[in-house]
Amino acid sequence: MNIQQWLADLIPQAYERYQPVLERALLYFVGRLRPERQQEIVLHQMDCQDSAERMTALMRDCPTLHKLGQLLARDPRLEEGFREKLRQLESCLPLARPEDYDWPLELRPEQALAEGSVASVFACRWGETEVVCKQLKPGVADKLRDEFGIWDELGQQLGDWCRQDGLAVFDYRTVIASLVRLLEDELHPSREQRQLLLAAQRFQDVPEVQVPCLYPQLRGLVMERLYGTPMLEHERAGELFSLAVRVLITDPFFTGDEDGVFHLDPHPGNLWVTNQGRLALLDWGSVLVLSKERRVLLTHALLSAWRGDQQDWEFYASQLTGAPVGLCPKASNLSGLLSPESWGDQFPLDLILLRKILFHLEGIEAHLGESQLMWHIFTQAAVRFLAELPMRLAAPLNWRGFATHLSNLDIVRHTVLHWLKPPDESG
Predict the structure, then answer these.
(1) Cα atoms in the Cβ-side hemisphere of radius 13 Å centred on 198
(2) Which residues pair with 96 in a beta bridge?
(3) pLDDT value at position 427?
(4) Which segments of 97-208 are extended strands (E)?
(5) Nearest to 254 by CA among 319, 315, 302
(6) Global confidence as pTM
(7) Strand duo 209-210 + 271-274: pairing
(8) Where are the domains of the chain?
(9) How far is Cα 61 from Cα 143, in angstroms, rounded to an integer?
(10) In this predicted model, what pLDDT tens digit does every residue of 291-307 receive, in sequence order?
(11) Residue 62 pLDDT grade (very low, low, confident, very high; cuts 50, 70, 90)
């Protein structure tokens, strides 16, 4: 496998300085897989025609790389032909045969629907009822255990290689270990069952949104079958994007509840429009929970960055990271405000995961040819603020229990400081 040539073909010129580290990392990763897995990878490479196909095939053979590929599929910094290949990782058909899976006796598999990094989805019959069953891919637990060990070793190596090449150095080992534990959650269907039940409860009063109903009396993860169209292929995609932003970002962030719960994998393969016109949110294998305290601090940190107030930025952002931070971010998109370069060596896992969600939504935004994500979030937050006005009249000046996380005193302070300080002044 000529990984060096693949990367040379696929990495944009602006990011060429990262190619040597990526090359060493991929060679290190593949070189430590078991021989039988290396043979399987080589076999699948023989059917590929170009670098994009070869890289995508490698990602599909490795669950952790498959998950990474789903994220990169919507990254506009990558070449469009490569992203088109990566998008196949969002909703490809299973490689294994139905008979290779362990089926509950009550179910009769009928049709393969999709395959993710850890599990496959099949249409089945339960008596006369049409259902969907999500099954772990054959051998995926062993593959993940192999790859988790490699990533643990690779975390330290990445820091050393970046230091040698003069690139930004972060606590890669801790970050990778945390992300690995998150991916491991998908090996336990009971966790997704619980999250699916909570999601159904959360959206029971939101008629525009649907999550699949669960059949908890059956072994495994068995849900109702929903019929519809991928959101990006639907004629109302632009209109529904605003709804997706609200339920995936604005609602869980701007809530007065102690915990804000975010769907952690909102790539286009998991966003469908049912035949009844409802937005269907699929795959609740992983969620991100942000506490009220974290959301308050993040709100203040981002407002400080917007004002260009370095001192305030450091005060709030360092409370989120538990360590010193860099210069406050200046970016035109939301994921840029969560750039690791501004958050320092101890970039926290919850913000990494929030940035992952934003990457998915910005990718959808780019596919739709719009630049509306920040506008949707701003206007939806403004609606919540207006709804709070009657309560604010009687609230203590420093009370932050509002869904928008800002006390009356906070609003005055940020507003006054914004007008008193030039926007380009950093500290």
Answers:
(1) 16
(2) none
(3) 41
(4) 108-115, 119-126, 129-136
(5) 302
(6) 0.86
(7) unpaired
(8) 3-92+139-184, 291-420
(9) 9
(10) 999 999 999 999 999 88
(11) very high
